[in-house]
């Protein structure tokens, strides 16, 4: 356990003490510091205090920092497709079928379990360093932090929308052109498992561009400006172009009139939403250098596009 004595300067008079400590300790998130204060690991004149108390100026805070596991997740030897890694971040190309982290019904066999096996030190970070997620049946690029400072910085980048995330999607319907969907998203009032466009939801913005048009389907790229749960899936369904094979927002399989049996079979056998995180751009949390990675379309989506080119040509 590390012991720190922190003198809070007069320039921070009037601020909450937890906010002031977060400014003095940039390697740690405010939520982590607030938790330490509540646990009694921060003292002023030998006494505990509340996070919301105001700075008077000149206080000496005695802080005990203890590195500890943040969860009981188990390390598992699950293969990872690592696109890039250094001392601060890991870039993963997540396969279809891999859940991001343990939860109800999936306590093992997840990306988080695999990461803990790859780097046991990630057990000391919230969510094993995971700062954003992909749905189980969405493939593609994700970034994972390897330190408190990197995690804090990446979360801030995500919150300020400075991380660029570009997806490939194959949707029902013939799109004429791209556009922007700016519709709030929140829980579906009729089905709490689902998300929906609702007036009281949080702002959600998705940009989309056409890559290739077919007679009854379209291959597009979607760029997230915000990162709401199921955002691309909800937004595209809302405008009448749901993802092919999306079990939650896609509805029944749509066969074009007089469709060839090969096209029907391809649509029936495609067993996950046609969505892939293909490009990720961010500022490295430590070096401040802009970095970008691309992941090719997985084989199942490539095969589907070939079928559409052959049997659903525009």
TrEMBL record:
Residues 15-79 form the RNA-binding S4 domain. It catalyses: a uridine in RNA = a pseudouridine in RNA; uridine(1911/1915/1917) in 23S rRNA = pseudouridine(1911/1915/1917) in 23S rRNA. The keyword ATP-binding does not apply. InterPro entries: PsdUridine_synth_cat_dom_sf, PsdUridine_synth_RluA-like_CS, PsdUridine_synth_RluC/D, PsdUridine_synth_RsuA/RluA, RluA_PseudoU_synthase, S4_RNA-bd, S4_RNA-bd_sf. CDD domains: PseudoU_synth_RluA_like, S4. It is an enzyme of class 5 (isomerase). Its EC number is 5.4.99.-. The active site is at residue 135. One of its GO terms (molecular function) is RNA binding. One of its GO terms (biological process) is enzyme-directed rRNA pseudouridine synthesis. Keywords: Isomerase, RNA-binding. Responsible for synthesis of pseudouridine from uracil at positions 1911, 1915 and 1917 in 23S ribosomal RNA. PANTHER family: MITOCHONDRIAL RNA PSEUDOURIDINE SYNTHASE (PTHR21600), RIBOSOMAL LARGE SUBUNIT PSEUDOURIDINE SYNTHASE D (PTHR21600:SF44). Belongs to the pseudouridine synthase RluA family. This is Pseudouridine synthase.
